[in-house]
Amino acid sequence: MASGLRDGRPPAGLLVAGGFAVTVLKCAVVAAAVPGTRARVWVMAAVVTAFAARARSLPAGLATAVTAWCFTTGFLVNTLGTLTFGRSDLVRLGVFAVGGLGGRRAAPAPAGSPAGRSRFRSGSRSRSRSRSGRTSRSGTSTTVR
To answer: Which domain holds residue 85?
Structure first.
């Protein structure tokens, strides 16, 4: 039975749901523990960046950024979930989007992923096999039996 993991990572839909859960929980903690609107915004931007770095998924990073913007604007900046679209709100959306994208780019690639493997290995020569069964190594052809 398949586990749904692709390249050792959960599917993007599960990561988006995880980002939503992280955003809601962190928003509640920040509302209770962090005074001042500016500090709250920067803490939530850091949460988005950290989640995007951990998830390494473009859809999850951007969805988490938008979700965090909605919750931050609605509950940490304004009251009672009121969303506003003024200049500062759109700048905040941009900061969260950059965090969602930047966190993904800043994350190191896992060792087994194609991005984590080097195309050039030091000390080893590449071998190629032609259709005729011959193996070529640095210009020398030999027959494989």
So the answer is: 12-106
